[in-house]
Specification:
Layout: H1 2-10, H2 13-17, H3 29-37, H4 55-64, H5 97-113, E1 117-119, E2 129-134, H6 136-139, H7 144-149, E3 155-161, E4 164-178, E5 186-199, E6 202-206, H8 209-220
Antiparallel strand pairs: 1-2, 2-3, 4-5, 5-6
Helix pairs in contact: 1-4
Length: about 220
């Protein structure tokens, strides 16, 4: 109970201004102000924009408990769900409400994060489901030179269930790429020049295969 009481006090405006509060454990105003300042956003760095932590979010977690899957956030490296191979979706699940909810959440988080692909394990669900989309608005964020070198072309939303990959061109291309589950880091990863992805009625050749290869790797590999 003391943790909850302390979290409530630290989230008040008086605590952030350093006003002396009569805490049960005799904490001084300077200590309160110091802890409150830990939530002050730091300048953006090479690892990306800094995240501000909310005391009210901490208190909400204490009261309501852990969030349910599929999460509204992306699981980060070290999460147990990313250490297991995703299982296939059973035929009876294809038209079920759980899969529909999973797909809706995948698309929601993917668009909010402005990424081009996301898989179900990244939202805490160990199933072979992935969503891909590269709209014109997101494509324009890349320079024309980068779009040409990486052979990037826009494509509409596609959702794959139990996808399989077939290599069409085994030449390797290497570009810097990031992963939403390894936030703040980039790495040069070799990918096949072209692959074909199939699954749940969706099938077609993909020239921008590094994207497909990268996201689908989350379904078959341990992170």
């Amino acid at each position: 109970m003391s943790r909850l009481w302390g979290g409530l006090l630290l989230g008040t405006p008086q605590a952030r201004r350093g006003v002396l509060l009569a805490l049960p454990w005799g904490m001084c105003a300077g200590a309160i102000a110091t802890q409150a300042c830990s939530s002050t956003p730091a300048p953006h760095g090479l690892e990306g924009p800094a995240r501000a932590r909310s005391y009210w979010r901490y208190v909400r977690r204490l009261i309501w408990g852990a969030p349910e899957q599929p999460y509204a956030h992306v699981c980060q490296v070290g999460d147990p769900v990313l250490r297991t191979v995703a299982g296939p979706v059973e035929p009876a699940q294809l038209a079920g409400p759980e899969l529909q909810r999973l797909v809706q959440r995948l698309v929601q988080v993917m668009r909010r994060r402005h990424c081009v692909g996301l898989s179900a394990p990244q939202l805490g669900v160990p199933l072979q489901v992935l969503a891909l989309e590269l709209p014109e608005a997101l494509l324009r964020a890349y320079t024309p030179c980068m779009r040409e070198v990486r052979q990037m072309e826009p494509f509409p939303l596609r959702v794959f269930v139990n996808p399989t990959l077939r290599v069409l061109d085994n030449r390797l291309v290497t570009f810097p790429e990031g992963c939403e589950s390894v936030s703040g880091f980039l790495a040069c990863v070799p990918r096949f020049q072209a692959v074909q992805i199939s699954g749940a009625g969706w099938e077609g050749p993909w020239g921008a295969s590094p994207l497909v290869d990268s996201v689908s790797a989350n379904l078959q590999l341990n992170l």
